[in-house]
Amino acid sequence: MVAVIKHAGREPRVLSLLNFTKARRALAWRDGRPIDTAEFLADVAKVAALLPPARSAVNLCVDRYAFLVAFCAVLTRGQTNLLPPSRAPQAIEETLAANPGSYVLGECAPAAAMPRFVALPLLGGEATDAQPAIAAEQVAAIGYTSGSTGQPKPNPKRWASFRASTERNVAALGAAMRLGPDTVAHVVATVPPQHMYGIELSILLPLLGPFAVHGGQPLFPADVAAALADLPEPRLLVTTPVHLRALLADPVALPRLAAIASATAPLDAALAAAAEARYGAPVLEMFGSTETCVIAQRRTALETDWRLYDGLRLRPQPDGTLVEAPYFDQPVALQDLVELCPGGFRLCGRHADLIEIAGKRASLADLTRRLLALPGVRDAAVLQQETPDAIGVRRIAALVVAPERSEAELLEALRAEVDPAFLPRPLRKVDALPRNETGKLPRAALLAVLRDQS
């Protein structure tokens, strides 16, 4: 079943689910064995036949191959995959409430009771070459922002737009990995598939390019190494700066990599260089957002400027940047401030990240970077408080993970780095920051920790 959307004055347009001609190649790896396209298509058909009539489904599958099958089964029924900002019961309930009549799809029922839950059947054992077609204008997914700068917001993604943006990732990663015309690269991802970056680089890549994905979601260094060892070369590790830092802090050796991709948070050049030196592979930092998907990349150890993907255009604005792409319905606004340069752009911070106190301006990201650079600091976040003080100023606060240093020592060391107007008051030590599965720091979670520490 394919949802067909008619356009005035032209025929309906559909696009295939898979985008390659090599028959029965490996699409995924699960339990130590490859799963080819014929087995995958049979699994998609099996799951699609079980889905109830609805407009959308919350895809909670943890196993990456199960998520891939469920994602495509929902598509073939003409429905939309809902991707909540987290797996927390409240986030799921809010997503369901915003999309009446939706159901929940997963390998097994969540601990908290969920209405209209559909469990995936046992996958594997059958094969078919019948490939479904998807309406180009179908909303394939609705991704929600992480909430790092406020409340999560829905962002619908059409199938045609998803395909077009993924084609650029396929080209960029293929060039970085020097893939031959008949080579299939193998992907291990530490980021969950519900995240937009996770969907782009671990779900859409194998559907639309010469990639096969590992079914797991390893987090600890030993698990990442084991997952990579399950796969043949060439290997691509899709990860985040938080996970990359943890890998470098662990003595475990990784199997040979062809490339590492990183996103969800700024990647420090020194961290990228250390990863390249240890693993002998280029580290590609991907730039994008839930609103735009990936639009640029750079090799952070060697490059400062970002290389914009072909066919895209940036229009700097006083409060951010408009992104134009041939597959967007209209320009998309980002909070990021950029400076255009030949072939790409330079990031100048985010509009929401810039603060002004006593007539002076600073960037929260720069203040955080300076705090992270202090000896003994393992993690840190600087934010502006919600409530003004007695003279109407919203002061700066900081949360720091630094077991061997006192709050007073940290504040004194930071005094030499920043203007007194931007010294964090308070600066609180904590055991860990409230990072989500992708390493992001939702603002609401930071404020909650800050309140608890007051």
From TrEMBL:
Residues 371-440 form the AMP-binding enzyme C-terminal domain. Gene3D superfamilies: 3.30.300.30, N-terminal domain of ligase-like. It is found in: Membrane. It is a peripheral membrane protein. InterPro entries: AMP-bd_C, AMP-bd_C_sf, AMP-binding_CS, AMP-dep_synth/lig_dom, ANL_N_sf, ATP-dep_AMP-bd_enzyme. Keywords: Ligase, Membrane. It comes from the Bacteria. PROSITE patterns: AMP_BINDING. Its EC number is 6.2.1.3. Pathway: Lipid metabolism; fatty acid beta-oxidation. This is Long-chain-fatty-acid--CoA ligase.
